[in-house]
From TrEMBL:
Belongs to the peptidase S26 family. It comes from Chlamydomonas leiostraca. Residues 67-96 have a biased composition (Low complexity). Residues 15-106 are annotated as: Disordered. This is signal peptidase I. Residues 125-282 form the Peptidase S26 domain. One of its GO terms (biological process) is signal peptide processing.
Amino acid sequence: MHRVLCLGGLGSRLGPSCPRISGSRNPSHKISSVSIAHTRSTGSHLQSRHVCHSKLPGSEKAPGLASESDQPSSSSGPESGTGSSNNNNNGSKSQQGGSGSGSGSSDQSQFIEVLGLKISKDDLITITAAIAISYGIRFFIAEPRFIPSLSMYPSFDVGDRLIAEKVTYRFVRPPTPGDVIIFHPARGVGRSSFFDDDVFIKRIVAVSGDTVEVREGQLYVNGIAQVEPFINEKPAYVLKQLTVPPGEVFVMGDNRNNSYDSHIWGPLPMENILGRAVCKYWPPQKIGGLPDFTHDTRVAPAAPLAVLQAPPVSVSN
């Protein structure tokens, strides 16, 4: 877009030597134009301004007029200022856009997609640590269990929940008669599952090397009748005497006539033991530790002391 600025008729400004351009009759005066081009900041428009002056003899330019080289490019008028401000605005917007895109990309890098869900790296680390700690405690220290049947009634009822610890058998002592244990059943016993999550709970009544026998409603270990205040009722079956093999234990339910235990499928390998039940935590009215009925079945109880009666002494007068 071009604008032409004619300075004809402005003799008062150019001096007396510059006549009016329109209608000038002096042939000695030659009309020349200086085209000053200013490129706007956007680069899309070219603005030209033509300045007309009278070229006098012996003079290269009229006084008061600046040549193209004398005029600074910054003094191109209000339009040039507008272009500069637009350029600055565009630059700031580009900087803001660049920073925004950088921030967005950094935010995206903080998330990981897991199973179709976006999870931040910090949350993923927290969840992984919590799962690892939970499984570590469950495998090495203790684990909760619930009672699904009446095989241990009245010590445990259906729906009771307990804690089984795993430290004692690892570092303190071996399994002992009277302990209530949780365990995986022997091979071929119970239901088989892919995750091997079938767990029983029974009481140890004999360990390796002990002889076990049930007759006349009484349990005998090493020929000694056992005192069992925790059972529901006396057993109504007969178990012929057997010896517990090395590395195994003999387990029975406290509800002797309603328990799937060693008197049916035989002794249990000690490697199948998961832990020792130590307390109940549900229901609330039953919270507390379990009574201790442990004893060594290989030591015969001491015989009662006989009361010695002194022979009568005759007293003579």
